[in-house]
Write a structure and sequence with these properties.
By secondary structure, the protein is of the alpha/beta class. It folds into 2 domains: 142 residues, no CATH class; 243 residues, 4-Layer Sandwich (Purple Acid Phosphatase, chain A, domain 2). Helices cover 44% and strands 17% of the residues. It has 11 helices and 12 strands. Strands 1-12-2-3-4-5 form a 6-stranded mixed β-sheet. Strands 6-7-8-9-11-10 form a 6-stranded mixed β-sheet. The longest helix is centred in the first third of the chain and has 37 residues. The chain starts with a helix and ends with a strand.
């Protein structure tokens, strides 16, 4: 019931916001420029279809004919991203036009006649369509052009010298679902295995769909290989998709799910603690899930180094008091599409990269996949190789 209510709330917000955005785009690109009636009618119907395609694709992708409608899902998701860029471009153009009109009014300039107003409206529409479309195409190219391998070195004060140079490959926010399928996972697995990591950590938001829907697309993760194993912690999207079932499925694939617990990594020559907690929002979904740092970290030897897997960066605000040396997180996608970066900063203490909080470090991945529109602007996707060094 919680998942159903969450989806219903999300859908109602999505329909309201996209409806307002479509009306704004229609008014600026179709109505105001005074297009020929036939062209205006075609564009109006096209915008209505695209508006309905966004929520429609979310329902249809769960239907028996989902495979046949995959093209519609791609169209809806790409349009959703283009819509954002068009709204931003039109908003910027309206702001400039408003300042220009205030300047004319200040200098007591005569009002523009209807013909000149239409010329201005067409110039604004053309410029906004070009800018928005160009940004959209560039973003699609960035998202679908392959995953970046990012190399990061981290020095940890309590890491045993015998383990200096140990390498962790981090995958995060893959979002297997509407437009990310088996072939993408196979590529990610091949890239990760080529790094010959000592440990692989998947820091949540792996899926956007149920086990029944996505089992075959996630199956290649069983081929991930690392000396000390592959570990996973839940992200918020697992709780929209059936977290309990996914934890069982991932364990079946040979991936160790850490739910508010820790394990020892290493051998008799040197080791450190690896801990993982449920997503920060998990408690609201019930079922015994919920972030529990005291349970995961309590009673440990404070002289041992501690690496924590936690989906949301904000966990570091509490984790630093527990002696965490390094926290690995995701969730933010690095903002994914500018200017969402600035909104993410209001909700998380770190958007991307390495940051220090007291004696603790946190590394936030920009994500391996993407969510929603297959677009990235200013935040390339990544597979992260973290090399840990002793002092």
């Amino acid at each position: 019931m919680t998942r159903l209510l969450t989806f219903a709330l999300f859908l109602s917000i999505l329909v309201t916001l996209t409806g307002a955005a479509h009306y704004y785009v229609w008014s600026r690109l179709v109505r105001d420029p005074g297009l020929p009636p036939a062209l205006a009618q075609v564009l109006t119907y096209a915008l209505i279809f695209l508006f309905l395609a966004i929520p429609g694709s979310m329902f249809l992708r769960r239907s028996p004919i989902a495979t046949a409608l995959e093209g519609l899902v791609w169209l809806a998701m790409i349009w959703l991203g283009l819509l954002l860029f068009l709204v931003l471009a039109l908003g910027a153009a309206d702001l400039v036009r408003g300042i220009w009109q205030l300047g004319r009014a200040y200098h007591h300039a005569a009002p523009l006649d209807a013909e000149r107003r239409q010329v201005v409206a067409r110039l604004v529409a053309g410029a906004a369509a070009f800018v928005g479309g160009s940004l959209g195409l560039w973003s699609v190219r960035s998202a679908l052009g392959g995953v970046t391998l990012r190399h990061v070195e981290v020095t940890l004060a309590r890491l045993p010298k015998a383990l200096s140079g140990i390498r962790i490959v981090q995958l995060s926010d893959v979002h297997v679902g509407p437009t990310i399928h088996k072939s993408f996972i196979e590529t990610v697995v091949a890239q990760s295995n080529a790094l010959r990591a000592d440990l692989i950590a998947i820091t949540g938001d792996l899926v956007d769909g149920t086990v029944e829907e996505l089992r075959e697309h996630v199956a290649p993760l069983a081929n991930l290989r690392a000396k000390y194993g592959v570990f996973f912690v839940t992200g918020n999207h697992e709780y929209y998709s059936g977290a309990e079932e996914w934890c069982v499925e991932l364990e079946r694939l040979g991936i160790r799910v850490l739910r508010n617990e820790r394990v020892s990594i290493g051998d008799a020559n040197g080791s450190f603690d690896l801990a993982g907690v449920d997503d920060h929002s998990a408690k609201s979904f019930g079922g015994g899930h919920g972030e529990d740092l005291p349970k995961a970290l309590g009673g440990r030897d404070p002289a041992r180094e501690l690496v924590l897997l936690a989906h949301q960066p904000k966990t570091i605000l509490a984790a630093q008091a527990h002696g965490v040396g390094l926290q690995l997180s995701g969730h933010t996608h690095g903002g994914q599409i500018w200017p969402w970066t600035y909104l993410v900063r209001l909700q998380q203490p770190v958007v991307a990269g390495l940051a220090r909080f007291g004696q603790s470090l946190v590394y936030v991945s920009s994500g391996t996949g993407y969510w929603g529109p297959p677009m990235r602007l200013g935040a390339p996707s990544e597979i992260t190789e973290l090399t840990l060094r002793a002092v």
